[in-house]
Amino acid sequence: MIVKAAFDIAQAVRRRTERVMMRAGLRRFARAKGGAAAVEFALVAVPFLALLFAIIETALVFFANQALEYAVAESSRLILTGQAQGANLDQASFKAKVCTNVTALFDCANKLQVNVQDYSSFAAATTTPPYDGNGQLDTSKLVYQPGGPGDIVVVSLYYEWPIYAQLLNGNLTNQNGNKRLLIATAAFRNEPYQ
């Protein structure tokens, strides 16, 4: 009985001592200033880097789209002035000319798609990409019709740009496989060349 009472008292003292030591340790931890910057950086680093990557990727998409706009403006002049028709360029040859105006951002030979169509009037012209039933670009419907003098022509370039920061850039993708379809279009009336 005396041994059990002594044991119970020792256990109670040990528990009380542990609680006092725990409180003292927590107070010391709360007052400690060393390593606070490292802990704060660890909490903020991952969201900051993810946001930074998303901003850079969004900027790249807009820059790539602007480069595609430049390429369509430069290459459509070949059709506008009749140079493409005079040289009897086909779709592959015209695409090769377009690729000379495209920056190194693009895989021009494999991923760039070209659509050139002539129309009877501006009202009949369409700039809507040819989509399949799933909302994806249907490359089998792309044509090359540069028209003749005075014809209305729409030149469109399509490029599927890969999106990597999908978590924060959910609105950037508009194609399957985390891709964004970049579109650059020029609509004009051919000059009366001879």
Total strand count, please? 3
Q: What is the structural class? A: alpha+beta
Strand content: 15-25%
Strand count, sense and barrel status of the largest sheet are:
3 strands, antiparallel
- The span between the termini is 121 Å
User: How many distinct helices?
Assistant: 5
| Poorly predicted sequence stretches spanning 5 or more consecutive residues | none
> Helix proportion of residues, in percent?
40-55%
Residue-averaged pLDDT, rounded?
A: 87
The rounded Rg comes to 33 Å
Strand order of the largest sheet: 1-2-3
- Based on Cα principal axes, name the global outline: rod-shaped
Order of helices and strands, N to C?
Answer: HHHHHEEE
Provide the domain count: 1
